[in-house]
Amino acid sequence: MMNEQVVMRLLWVLQNVPDIQEKLNKNQIRFGTLDTFLIYKFTDGENHVTDYSNAAPTGFFDPFENNWASWALQMFSIPSSILPTIVPSVGNHFGYCRIFPEKNIPILCVLADQSASMFGSTSFHRGNVKVTLGTGAFLDVNTGKKPHASVNGIYPLVGWKYDSELVYIAEGNSKDNGLIVDWGKTIGLYDNVEDSSKIASSVPNSNGVYFVPGFNGLQAPYNDPSATAGFIGVNPKTVKAHMVRALLESLAFRVQQLLNVLQTETDFTFDCVRVDGGVAKNDFVLQTIANLTGKRVERPVCTEMSALGSAFLAGMQAGIWKHRDELENYYKVDKVFLPHIEQEDGIHQNFMEWERALSRFLRWSKKKTK
Q1: Sign, Cα dihedral of 192, 198, 203, 209
Q2: Which run of H or of E encompasses 129?
Q3: Rounded to two decimals, what is the model's pTM?
Q4: What is the rounded distance in angstroms from the CA atom of residue 220 to the CA atom of residue 182?
Q5: CA separation, residue 160 to residues 75, 90, 171, 311 (Å)
Q6: What separation in angstroms does the CA of 222 have from each of 64, 152, 169, 218, 313?
Q7: Which residues contact 125 (CB under 8 A, 6 or more apart)?
């Protein structure tokens, strides 16, 4: 299952919490992810619901049936009675926030993180591509009215359901992104994260040094939780700038791998990649992505697209905007990164060498025996 955190934690609760079976028999147990919990609390226990975009990543939602997957519930022995009702992402069905005395505030929109980011970046059309560079890296493509099935670790999600429109996205992720940049500061490669881009650009290449960002294993296309992280190719001429460049290049290389999987499995064509998230402020990473993909990379003025996307949909429900085409005027580009064609051969050769280095870090961790 894609989201092992939800599935495994729920199974642990069902199997280990004292008196859980007795409470289940009395219909006293309710399950939900964070959105469900907040709605339940905000509405003073009135609504036990989730939206399609938050249900989709749980691991027991079937995007092809648009409902809780009966086969998964049976496999994991999860009683359907504890699950929240799945509702559209936008509407009046979430109820009212009642935590403020004498003020009932309508809850108009509930949306998953990356789905909200897609909407905030105005990636409304089939084939639109968005990359969030936060703690992890998330590459999402709008697949329109059909979910995308993959065998390489790309998973189908629901983007949003608004009125009669149901939009799907296909997502690939790399769990280590911003975490890697912060780690570089921790070990003393730079004093400030903001300096990393300038340091990486101070040398023409990494001098044969490569870094593999696998603190939490490697996701698509390897799907290897036992993979590890580390530098390789360090030599007597290696200096900090080479290591910083290798560190940042690895983040762009992982995005390229995710794009390669999507392009291999789909017929989508695109000419632009929109980015957001904290690491999107790093010029070196974005320029490397542009050089690798050969595509225009856009960084918006507002890099917190998830909050913006939720606000957009809530605003449409409230009547602030009548049509989503109006929202495109609010997407402001801070900087555009165009591919440097003259560097294309060199960057792709470097990418292939990095993939060769990465192969040394697969299937590393072993389970400890007692």
Answers
A1: positive
A2: strand 129-133
A3: 0.91
A4: 23
A5: 27, 8, 14, 13
A6: 25, 8, 21, 6, 35
A7: 142
